[in-house]
Amino acid sequence: MRLAVMRFSAMRFLRFIPMALVLAAIPCFSHVYHADVAAATQATPQFPVTWARQIAPIVYRNCSTCHHPGGGGPFNLLTFEDARRRGPQMVQVTQSHFMPPWLPAPGYGDFADTRRLSEEQVTLIRKWVASGMPEGNPSEAPPPPHYDPNWQMGTPDLILTVQRPCTLPASGADHFRNFILPYPLAQTHYIRAMEILPSVPQVVHHANVLIDRTASFRRNHPTDWKDGVPGMELEVDAGNTFDPDSHFLFWKPDTPVLVEPAGMPWRLDPGNDLILNMHLKPSGKPETISAQIGLYFTTKPPIRHPMLLQLEDDRDLDIPPGDPNFVVQDEMKLPIDVEVLGIYPHAHYLGRELEGWAILPDDRKKWLIKIPNWDIDRQSIYRYREPVFLPRGSVLHMRYVYDNSADNVHNPNDPPIRVRAGNRSVDEMAHLWVQVLPVNVPKGSPDPRLLLEQAWMEHRLIKDPQDTIAMYNLASALAGLGRYTEAAVAYRKLLAARPGDARALNSLGAALENAGDLQGAADAYAQAIAFSPDSCDARFNLARLELKRAHFSEAENQFRTMLRQCPEDAGVHSGLGVALAGEGDAASAQAEFQRALELDPDNFAALYHLGEMAIESGQPEHAVDLLESAAKQRPGDLDTRERLAMAFAQSGHAGDALTQLRDAVQLAPGDADLHALLAQVLAGSGQLEQAIDEQTEALRLQPKDADGWNNLGVLQAQAGKTAAARAAFQHALALAPDHAQARANLNRLPPQ
Ligand code: HEC
After folding, report:
1. N or C, which end of the chain has less CB nearby within 10 Å?
2. Which atom of ligand 1 is closest in space to residue 72's alpha carbon?
3. 99 lines ligand 1 (CB under 6 A)
4. Which CATH number fits domain 309-440: 3.40.50.1370, 2.60.40.1180, 1.10.540.10, 2.60.120.230?
């Protein structure tokens, strides 16, 4: 008997990416305009620079994206007339590279969608203005871009809407609102692109979307979640599987659609929530704030799994007033080969110079980004044109310089004051988020992101040994890597800092159980229950463990207690069924399994055990139905396939039985029992030679199996190989001299 339900609690706390800030950033809905820039950038005296030939393509592609009605630019740049009116100013702002807004210095990271104009383009604008801004032949100009005030990529596959709009006062400090948008569908979907449509884009500085896999934030705000929860930092419980944040779900008015790289969509499962965290800025009149999130699906699940890493050193942020050169640094060694896909540097108003780079194992320096003049209002996520390969052993670095002098035009304090780390816009931050994709992963290794997680959390603990979230995530990563003994040590450290943490105790129990210390595990679960008697998780694990130890009546008691707390839990009913079956009460067990299936037709344990019961009670056809459903739930589960094969064989479907067993053998070629079973089914369908091969393979894997030698002898005798059969029976008797069947079979062979 065995119960195949496991709740291995491995919560991950995610820290939200907090982005504060004030200052004016006018939202602008831009649209990537693909004008043909190959249009001549050359101008000769005979062919002077004209609007139509050279300037319109530059402006449409690089300026109109913000400078259009409803866009973020303060005026339009859509027509020849618009441009002529602004000509001299355009020369000024493009020569200084003030426009288009683009922070990274050229040559320190090659980014996709770079907005910076080339020197040729700047020169063309200057020459055009100097020669009197001729229009040229209008028919040579590309068609002006069109901006859709609605969804930029057409109607989304799913639109989620904020449940209750909130009111933003006319004035005062910035607002941070977290709107919860439950994912309403009953199927998993993969998201290739997302757009946010705020009701009043003008007041939205930027927004972040966080996936709450367990709806924990909603649970923690049962009364007020529909109104949007204030605050700019949140922790969510990532649930029992390692599923780290891996995408920059960041939205800014001038980059409204977020399209994920090929092969890397993100996932939404039934029961997930999206949390829309909006940074709002009062506009002078009260505004009603609502928003829609548009999601674009793809049927293709992700084939590559990136991960976000964070360098930071907020603890060191304590900037004396007047200090023009306050430096903060962090560094972290990569345990595996990665490709860097994107980067997101973040500081507030005092940040001046933001740098990120890697030192490779051969000591070479590879720049990731350099921002010489940081400006919070121009913050952005930067994706690399080509992924940046960093071999294992490379060290990621960040170095930020802050200017808290009166000379810093962005300094919000006059005179300057002492500034420390924090979430308010008057505080500072020092964060560098890096999106990496593990590469060159050896086949069969565990999720390589667990190694990144381990390195990251160990690094956090060096910086702050009391960081309990890092302790928890480190322990979970070790458990995920199958290093259960180390995980248990890590959970114990966490428990020393947070005694009575029921969830940590439960996880400790799971680690000990997997490490083989069943008594220690039972004690840890019992402690977790004592600290949190209402939570079903630890009790479930304890009950499951009691089943494993064949303590059926103890298990029954635990499951019955749980039924009082959560009578609708299919897992509890099927667990109780296993306990009752173990106590010999098959009828009650069957009733519990059936109840479990009523509550959840996909409950694996109930399907499996009812299937097994059907085999035992001679209903192989019914067993096939049940076990086929079970196999669909867990295609890799060998026991299920074995039982299914037996059910097929008993109901006369030898071909299907063989298919199941061959699949199973593929999954576990080293499983002797599977080869032996396959031999039986092959023999039953008359394929004696193959049966002998399989039985021989089973014995190669398990040479001391007397029954197996006896079975081999029977097959060989049937195939007329008397001498070989004799040797096999004798071998069985040598291993087990009392083997009555082998002796009888030997005696039945024709004399030599
Ligand atoms: C990403 C959006 C964006 C793009 C692209 C953009 N601008 Fe702007 N532009 C702005 C914003 C916003 C302002 C208002 C000033 C500020 O906030 O920096 C502005 C201001 C200006 C100004 C006024 C500057 C001043 O001193 O007041 C000029 C001139 C200008 N832009 C020209 C251009 C030109 C020319 C291009 C293309 C080569 C361009 N812009 C591309 C957003 C943009």
Report:
1. C
2. 12
3. yes
4. 2.60.120.230
